[in-house]
Amino acid sequence: MTNSSPRDSRSFRDSHGRPLVAVTGLGIVTSLGQGQADNWAALTAGRSGIHSIARFSTDGLRTRIAGTVDFLDTDPLVAPALSQRFAEEAAEEAITQSGIGAKGDFPGALFIAVPPVEMEWPQRQSLAQASGQNGDITYSDLQRAASSGRFDAWHDLFIFATVADNIADRFGTKGSPISLSTACSSGATAIQLGVEAIRRGEMQAALCIGTDGSVNPESLIRFSLLSALSTQNDPPEGASKPFSKNRDGFVMGEGAAALVLENAESARARGATILGYVLGCGEKGDGFHRTRSSPDGAPGIAAIRAALDDAGTEPDSIDTINAHGTSTPENDKMEALGCAAVFGERIRTLPISSNKSMIGHTLTAAGAIEAVISLLTIAHGRIPPTINYAVPDPALSLDVVTTARDARVSRVLSNSFGFGGQNTCLVLGDEPV
């Protein structure tokens, strides 16, 4: 963390002459706990938040584990309600730390990554029962049931922008809130949009959030049908094993993270403590396949290089990589190959770690959660481990951090590679380039 005064106005500009974007507030909720302190203590201790699912029956399911957040009181089977609650908690912590936007008057826009919203099985079943049909149910039957007025509360609940609207109302953000969903890179994309808005001079501050409460039976079945989930249910905490030879899929997680971004000059002028900077953002779309990565790894490589170029820095300046590291056979391989293409032989000695080994894959929240953890890594000078790395994959020549490692960390590359080829990478640092 830094609160020293810049010597002249050039210090408020990045290497491309744009307004420098500072981070002044952080908030986080995961299966490890609520808030920065609880999450950081658990992460650096190598403690897993993945456990057997208790909120619904998993009988007949191939995957029966997840990193669920079970300590907040809300409807556990309605993803929008969970996502909103997680976002509220994370935003409250971030705004309080930043000292800006108190009392529901945040002086900037909201950019929030949320999961795709659609009616879930319990609600569909209720609607079908209300149609009054005992045999085949038509779409017209469902429309008549929906128009009865009995389900008006669902109308707002299952509209894509509802979570954003509610968060904007609670914290008083300005302008129309932006909801986005770019698969597993969504949280990083929300941060990128906030950065770009501040750089363009459209606002002095932005509230950027990634949130996801999608652990439900339907999601587990859908991902299982894609052969994406680990089926190593026992013990639950051992299932997520990024970069290991015996990895067999990711484990679903949930939670949220929020970052308060500010124009560095205005943040300094109000006496804010700057926690770090978002120095670079890189993105690259890949139309190769709905779930698989391009075999040559070109889009992921391009996203990493774009983030470095945007930050005005070279690969040698990166001190550690917060990996996307999902624990799926293909993703880990492609990420390792992509990093090797950018960092060359140095990838063998460049520390790399995956938070998903402990919290699971938090989907649309992952990019934001991992950005917060990256900034905590910089602040504390300690790299959290990748747990369960007992059987290294000999095909991946990486310096995987297996126990928390003390290190001088000035810049972190945080990778987010999503289904559908949506790749977003961030460079976070403690000082301007």
UniProtKB/TrEMBL annotation:
UniProt GO molecular function: 3-oxoacyl-[acyl-carrier-protein] synthase activity
InterPro entries: Beta-ketoacyl_synthase (IPR000794), Ketoacyl_synth_AS (IPR018201), Ketoacyl_synth_C (IPR014031), Ketoacyl_synth_N (IPR014030), PKS_Beta-ketoAc_synthase_dom (IPR020841), Thiolase-like (IPR016039)
GO BP term (any one): fatty acid biosynthetic process
UniProt keyword list: Transferase
Pathway: Lipid metabolism; fatty acid biosynthesis
Organism (species): Methylobacterium bullatum
Family stated for the protein in its record: Belongs to the thiolase-like superfamily. Beta-ketoacyl-ACP synthases family.
UniProt protein name: 3-oxoacyl-[acyl-carrier-protein] synthase 2
Upper classification of the organism: Bacteria, Pseudomonadati, Pseudomonadota, Alphaproteobacteria, Hyphomicrobiales
Top-level taxon in the UniProt lineage: Bacteria
The gene coding this protein: fabF_1
Residue ranges of domain Ketosynthase family 3 (KS3) in the record: 18-430
Gene Ontology annotations for the cellular component aspect, listed alphabetically: cytosol
